[in-house]
Input
Amino acid sequence: MALTEKQKMLAGEFYTAADPEIQADQAAARDWMERYNGTRGHGPADLQALLREGFGAVGEGAVVRPPFHCDYGYNIRIGNGVFLNFNCVILDVVGVEIGDMTQIGPGVQILTADHPRDPALRAQGLEFGRPIRIGKNVWIGAGALIMPGVTIGDDALIGAGSVVTRDVPAGVTVMGNPARPRAASA
Output
């Protein structure tokens, strides 16, 4: 049996984003974000309830400060005590996992969406995704970009403004564009 475009998307295969089922999921995510981003003055319990409605999984004590933007929401799984500051973007065409106690600065973009390198395939409107996994107790500085397919190990540190194009081992500090290992300072 042939896969639907959504099934292809979730499997990380080439898919067409203009598919009606995918478009409906994006519309539902936009509606959810409008509600979530309009929560000024709401308490932590209300925000947690909305996060649980929009995300695939939400750990205890997780905080996502609005405004926040994503493609679908249901592919995002965040652990206990995770903190995302203002203006974060997660393009979640496939899974994004963020481990317990990870802190993410303002304006960080986590981007699973990718496009074919072949211009003929791009012209057909095809896309694909590569999952991102961020370990426990990671700190990602303001404005960093986490590119498709990257895994960041536990206790890593990503410098502000860095562009992370490759996996980051546990406990390593990376900075720059492209992000490269640096000696950590206290």
